[in-house]
Design a protein that fits this description.
mainly alpha
Length: about 375
């Protein structure tokens, strides 16, 4: 088996080694031609997010019978994401962090790039049938659990920060008003009382309001539902599942169009990642980013192994190996977009995306070699 996998790994090596460095050069030249590289990132992301990813997931589900899909595989990745979400709660509390710290820890360490890099890697290792399907199955738990969960946490954190900011503003205005009243008072009793001591300014401290009363729960729930239901890849998943239930085959012209967009995912995203490599603030956030990258590339795939055992051998053989390899892939590109949208951990996410992409190839090869050398009895 190792000889066969070794030849596949060589193909993978030839396919992927030039990508980060080529994209770095392209990103550098683009940086020199444009004053603001941020404007060059978003068109690439929009093209992938609104066109390529929905086409990829739709084709993967529409071309397979829905009831015959490996739903235990979806459950395995769902269990992995839920376990990581719970794991970072005590970690954040131990570090005396708040919900913003929790979000950065969880987002920077666990959002698996299952489709963008998973499809070409698994295709190179195990063939197009498994390569086009299993990364999509792994990504389904991301759209049905991790994305809604992250949006809820981000919205709660945003409401909490806005409430705190309003409290500080109100307190500052109250202090300024009291100072003006004291300045306008008579000079005899302006700063001293009858005994000659200083008068204590009445500074009404704002009362602490419980967290659940600070946030508009219904507004957040409706906003999250709207965001989730309008996420293009999730729309592609829903339409693909409905199309699969019809039993119809995908017309040849439509299938060729879907393949065209699906083939654009990895090249376009790696092009955008190459732009990240220019002026990357790695030195400013190297401590936390190194921990996030290590957790994502090493710890998370290691956690997948006991998760597969908990599935009672329902995910076995090549499917189990694929699960471990997919879990070892770097942080997904949309993590940076989500962090930027809410203004939390932008530098950490951009560094983790770029550094994880550069380290992806040796990491994947190491996990493939480990899976070949050690029989985990999946």
């Amino acid at each position: 088996m190792y000889g066969k996998e070794n030849s596949r790994t060589l193909v993978l090596l030839l396919l992927l080694v030039p990508v980060p460095w080529r994209n770095s050069l392209v990103g550098s030249s683009l940086k020199q031609q444009q004053q603001n590289s941020q404007t060059s990132k978003h068109p690439h992301h929009r093209f992938v997010f609104f066109a390529c990813l929905p086409c990829t997931v739709f084709r993967a589900l529409a071309t397979h019978p829905l009831l015959e899909l490996d739903w235990t595989y979806v459950a395995a990745f769902l269990l992995l994401r839920v376990a990581n979400a719970a794991l970072f709660v005590p970690v954040t509390l131990a570090l005396r962090g708040d919900i913003a710290d929790y979000l950065v820890h969880y987002l920077g360490s666990t959002w698996v790039d299952t489709i963008i890099f998973g499809v070409p890697i698994i295709t190179a290792l195990y063939g197009s049938d498994m390569g086009n399907l299993y990364p999509v199955l792994a990504a389904m738990s991301s759209f049905v659990f991790q994305l809604p969960y992250m949006l809820i946490c981000f919205e709660v954190g945003k409401a909490h920060r806005e409430h705190k900011a309003a409290e500080r503003l109100q307190h500052a205005e109250q202090q300024e008003h009291e100072s003006q009243l004291m300045a306008a008072d008579d000079g005899t009793c302006n700063n001293t009382n009858a005994a000659g001591g200083p008068v204590a300014a009445a500074q009404a401290e704002p009362k602490e309001v419980p967290l659940l009363r600070r946030i508009p729960v219904l507004k957040i729930v409706l906003r999250v539902i709207w965001h989730v239901l309008t996420v293009p890849p999730l729309v592609g998943i829903i339409i693909g599942m409905c199309y699969s239930l019809t039993g119809w085959s995908v017309p040849s012209l439509l299938d060729q169009t879907l393949v065209f967009f699906a083939n654009c995912v990895t090249p376009v995203v790696t092009f955008a990642v190459g732009i990240f490599l220019v002026d990357l603030p790695f030195l400013a956030v190297w401590k936390t980013s190194t921990l996030y990258v290590f957790y994502k590339l090493v710890v998370m795939p290691a956690l997948m192994i006991p998760v597969l055992y908990l599935m009672h051998h329902t995910v076995t053989g090549s499917a189990a190996n694929i699960a471990v390899v997919l879990a070892s892939l770097p942080l997904a590109f949309p993590a940076f977009t989500l962090a930027k949208q809410y203004g939390l951990g932008e530098r950490e996410m951009s560094t983790c995306v770029a550094a994880g992409t550069l380290l992806m190839l040796p990491t994947v090869m190491a996990w493939i070699a480990l899976l070949d050398a050690v029989d985990f009895h999946f």
